[in-house]
Amino acid sequence: MAFDVRRFDIYRKVPKDLTQPTYTGAFISICCCLFILFLFLSELTGFIATEIVNELYVDDPDKDSGGKIEVNLNISLPNLHCDLVGLDIQDEMGRHEVGHIDNSMKIPLNNDYGCRFEGKFSINKVPGNFHVSTHSATAQPQNPDMTHIIHKLTFGDKLKVDNVQGAFNALAGADRLASNPLASHDYILKIVPTVYEDMGGKQRFSYQYTVANKEYVAYSHTGRIIPAIWFRYDLSPITVKYTERRQPLYRFITTVCAIIGGTFTVAGIIDSCVFTASEAWKKIQLGKMS
User: Residue 121 needs a FRET pair 20 to 30 A away by CA distance; which of 9, 75, 219, 282 works?
Assistant: First the structure.
């Protein structure tokens, strides 16, 4: 007797003439197919799209930077002449630079009465400060007006990623035009290293920061008021990393199989219950008529 491999068929076929189509079954089948199509398209959209996963760790991510951070500053002082505006930089490594001019530009405002300062410079990865002041001016003005608007203050490379919402330019739009003209302004910054890794494994390094500020009137040892705009910074040991990821293919296939199998199973149970109930109701009706 020949071995029949068909014995292992667990999907036995029922002849068509032994099946009975119903309107309820057709309606459930159509709803079932539409539901499967909706879930499949939703899963396909999620599979094609990338997700951003973030993690925290303690490390210096950009070791090739030479211990430097690039800073971009754009600030307007509408009531202070450009000849008086200067940038000073100092830190705990002994750096003390007064009147930094490299990669900086001063644009006159209000008929040369005010000034817009734009500068790009580097700072060391140690606590320190940089400040806009009149310290580098040849002659100190009598009443320097330090009211200002900060247009931009960023650290490191600019990240152009829609899915990442961070505080990369937290001071943008800071308006201190209504403050005391002779007041000094302290912005205390906590800089957080940030890494973004795309699907190809390429990493970009930037920095977010939190900010607190205070306003006060400071007097020199001679009793004169010499206001300044201070940006005091310190680096956080915690690094934030954003990684682009895509759902694995095996997970997508598993989910699709679960959707199809689960939907058909539940639809079959619903159809069986409805059919059994309708047959029982018919028998009851026939019993009443007889």
Answer: 219
| Among candidate residues 105, 100, 152, the one with its CA nearest the CA of residue 123 | 100
Question: Would you list the DSSP string of 74-88?
Answer: EEEETTS-TTT-EEE
Averaged pLDDT, 238-262: 87
Q: Would you state the pLDDT for residue 67?
A: 83
**Looking at residue 91, what is its pLDDT?**
92
Radius of gyration of the chain (CA): 35
pLDDT at residue 288 is higher than 70: no
- Strand bridging mode 149-156 / 128-133: unpaired
Q: Is the pLDDT of residue 162 over 70?
A: no
Do 114 and 78 form a contact (C-beta atoms < 8 A)?
A: yes
pLDDT score for 146: 93
CB atoms within 10 A of CB 247: 15
Q: Which residue is it, tokens 């040991």?
A: 237
Say if residues 171 and 150 touch (Cβ distance below 8 Å): yes
Contact (CB, 8 A) for 156 and 65: no
Model-level pTM?
0.71
What whole-number distance in Å separates Cα of residue 239 and Cα of residue 208?
10
Handedness of CA 122, 218, 215, 212 (dihedral sign): positive
> Does residue 158 contact residue 71 with C-beta atoms inside 8 Å?
no
More confident residue, 174 or 278: 174
pLDDT at 139 over 90: no
